[in-house]
Target: NHL repeat containing protein-like protein
Amino acid sequence: MTYRFINSQLFSLFCLALSFNLPEFCPTPQWDSEPIIFANKTSLGTYPGTLFVNANNTVYAFATRQKRILLWTEGASNPTRQISLPDSKEGASMFVASNGDIYFDYRKPDGRVDRWISQNETLETVTIFESACFGLFIDAKDNLYCSMAWKHQVIKRQLNDNNMTSIVLAGTGKEGSNENELDGPKGIFVNMNFDLYVADCFNNRIQLFLSGKTIGVTLAGIGSSDVSVALYFPVGVTLDSMGQVFIADMNHKRIILLKRYGYQCVVGCSGIDSESNLLLGMEIFNFDSFGNIFVINPKTAQILKYLFINNSCGISFNIPKVCSLALWNSNGILFADQKLLGSQPQVLFADSNNKIYAFNESNKEIVLWSQSSILPILRTILVNSSRITSMFVTNNGDIYFDDYYDKKQITRWISNEGTFDSIVNINGSCSGIFIDTNETLFCSISKYHYVLKTWLNSYKKTLAIAAGREIAGSASNELNSPYGIFIDFKFDLYVADCGNDRIQRFQTDQLIGTTIVGKSSSYDGISLRCPSGIVVGNDGQFFIVDQGNHRITAFSVHRSLRCLVGCHGQGTQSNQLSNPFTLSFDQFGNMLVTDSNNNRIQKYNLYKASCGGPSGNPAYTFSISGNSPTFNPDCYKIHRFYEAIQMNVIITGFYVISWISESFFASLIYKDHFDSMDPFQNEIEDESDDNRTAVYKRIIELRANTIYILVMTGLLYTATISSCSVFIEGPSNISLTKFRNNPCRDERLTNAFGTSSSERVRSPFVLTWEAWDCQSDESETESETESEMETDGETGSEDDSGNSDVEDDENTPSVYTYNYTSNTWQKGNFGPTLFPRL
Model:
């Protein structure tokens, strides 16, 4: 059962009494990825507190260090009012009632909540909670809610009750991760049914407590049935008028929208530092009545405004909503072959309902599949056209296609009538067709080196030049054999300028273009060869059909050019392409490509874990505890517990390694060998933000027939047991086995028991090391090693700590602890205080 979606009619009735905005969004809303800086340190000062946007679009912000609340009325670029406060501290939470009264908390241990009364402009203390409120909320019945992060509870009090009786809604008062517990709750939201949504920050989840229930349901994060939504310190949660849940995922530096299956990233989606760092440290976000998102970030002392793209809900195709490191399976699935498509197919379109359209030239028919299923074909539409080179499908199911070779026109098939009509006459074949949300149709005519446009709502459909000037050229106002085209939400035109080996952008109604990538661009060394298709993501990524290089690439100004599929040269194998022409995305982010010379359409599945949490069954599960081995990956930090896992790779390619854990784990990957005494040796770097911090995934190229060791390490010393599950997505399955670091078979470790070893390990904490018993055929080495590890007395005798050695199982490692006082190793893990280094 899911609780994410609620009755919109009931919700809209509830919203009439609310002081804040709950816009109505379509299922796939979009926001501009580049925010407007609404306010900065000049007005906010350093470390501003919280934010609130009321139903009149007045913005309230807590200028903490300046001890005042700032107000911006709608349309104002500077504060229009300042309310002085007698006291202030970092943080503070705030809620503005419908009558203009401002409720706020100073985030002090005494839990005092004050109210600024708008009618007489005075301050009064409303109530005092047991602890500071990190989230405040007032429902339609004048109940005041307080999330006490330090007390791990959410409680409410009735504002009209003189006694202000506290009612515990969620949490037990002690940190925990059970269904009735919370750990550091931050943002809260109450819906029309008085159900409580909690950003359970340190449990990395969103909890829903139905009205009157103290047992929570996990909507997203750790413990959710949907493991694809991984959260990292969520601090805010709110709903729209349709009951869709939006989450401020602070340490992932993004805001996401929960879906019935998975999620949609809203802002901070690319993973690009210059964008996502704007959201690092965000405290809270609000909507205005237009659907724009306001975010306050105390660390950067900014209020950011992300503009809602009004026309984003009217598109008929799928825009990839993926991060900058998104990864697809490079081994394509055959979606359609020559029997269904004829020879050298070019036409392909995937609509927002996951219907796939292609053209069979041999049968002169449009072929339609439903829900990305290869079989059965949903229907065929006989068009009696000998050749179609481009196609576009609108929201109502009408199909616009190039019909130049038979009728010298663009033809429309009207879906609700099953008839055809002529749209406009053309003087050359359209290599690309696109219709924007203003009902403007664009056609790229490669023969005449320009892009034409016409207005579908106009009675007389005249053609005008949108780009190029009828002769081939490479100047900024010229094109050379343009193919695929794309119009973004700003109505900028993007052209795959094949003959010039570049992608051109023409801003709205401008005839002078800018080279995005390719020849003459500002990114030297990035080469394209006759690009034939272009799709623009809403986060600044460009997906390019690099036809002459027989591949699909992704480009962004921060990540440069990445090869996605077809990266192994021209060919007929599942990981190869030959003259690809058109690219389209289905609803799930999977790529569909017309592989023209191979007479097929290939489908490349998105690895979901590359941008979100893991999916499927774990490949390896383990637990660490106070008895686990430790090492010092940074030399100067506290030692960490770890699990070393050997990865056996069959097929070379990029793999996504992700994990779910009860506590924070980092990962390190080593090639050929892992030496816990020398953690920098053989370590492999990749494009992860920081391999030595608590990221939840790695994207890395692994080669077949090579030994790799994945080292999962807990960030902090803990005596409690913590489990972790590892997931892997890639071109093939990878078997994971426990790595056996056998010192008897590594000459480098023969010096590990002398002075040189202790000098290399510069941490003042005890080092523990996992060693495996030697095989009988290496008895001499075994004897030498055991001799060096003996302390006072014979092997197996009781040591100074009172611990006695026991006979080891042949499949169980022995754990040794280094005694810095005597410069010797002792069998057993004695913790970080028994033998402190002097």
